[in-house]
Design a protein that fits this description.
This protein is mostly helical. Helix content is 69%, strand content 0%.
Length: 333
Amino acid sequence: MSGKMIWMEYLRAIACVMVVIIHVASEFILKGDGGINWSFANFFDSLARVCVPIFFMISGYLFFNTRKVSQKNYIKVVTALLFYSSIAIIIKLVLSLYSPALADKLPLHYNFLAEPSIYHLWYFYPLIIIYLISNLVKVREINFLQGLCVITLLFTFFNPKLNDLLEISINFKFTNYFFIEGEIFYFVLYAVLGGCFYNLRNLNINYGRISFFLYLIVSILIAVFTNSSKSNTSFLFYEYTGILVFFASLCFFASFYLCQTILKPSRLVSLISRHSLAIYGIHAFVVSGLSVLTKFYKYPFMIAFPVIIIMVLLCSLCVSILIKKIDTKGYIS
């Protein structure tokens, strides 16, 4: 097993666990009673905000360079979207017949073309666009620092989220004609940024450690700013297109990439990484079900949170292993 694949396995597995952390923590944030539970949930949610950008960056590293998106890649993302959307639709139909009140409590929708059938499936929509754009954009000839500077400039000065950061930090707001609206643009930028790492050959472990430390600092800032603006229920600093999330994602990705020579193979990491797609597809159903049935967000965070995380991961992993045994071609797992 190559070092390159080991670092990518770690990123994919950790990002997968972080997705679960976000969705469990959000139950405490949105439905809990506030107080210390809210503060703990905000902290862990902020640490895990890099998860989806990391997935986009992995795709960019793979497909914005020499490797091409194959027909199977397109089929896989479409069939996965259809399969997990179908699960949501079936659950919604069954509950509507036997328990309409319970059906109304679950965030499930019928028309997956208009909006995701369940909230977490939104990820597949921009991923399809990233795959398409990867046929037109290759960054293998771009110097890493040059690409990093351009992407950082686009993600800061040209990002309308800059005003959110300036307003809460220094109470300043300005109008910029060059602001680029639209989430998809920034998701594609994440992929391009991941592709730029392909040209970074100087793997300095100390820089990797510094990058991880910076990731922690920026994540704490996300938690602090979110706490300062928690009366605003839109949670601006959680957004994946936000500037702080961008810098946290950049540092987190860089830390594993730069430290790839010291990462050792792990069976657990490899297991989660191999099943990450199915875990991602299944976990939200488990979280929603446990939330409705147990109302775990009402219990002390430091007890309920790790228990629910473990339950969701184990249940999702077991279902994922079962799906993979049936899905021998790997179209939905």
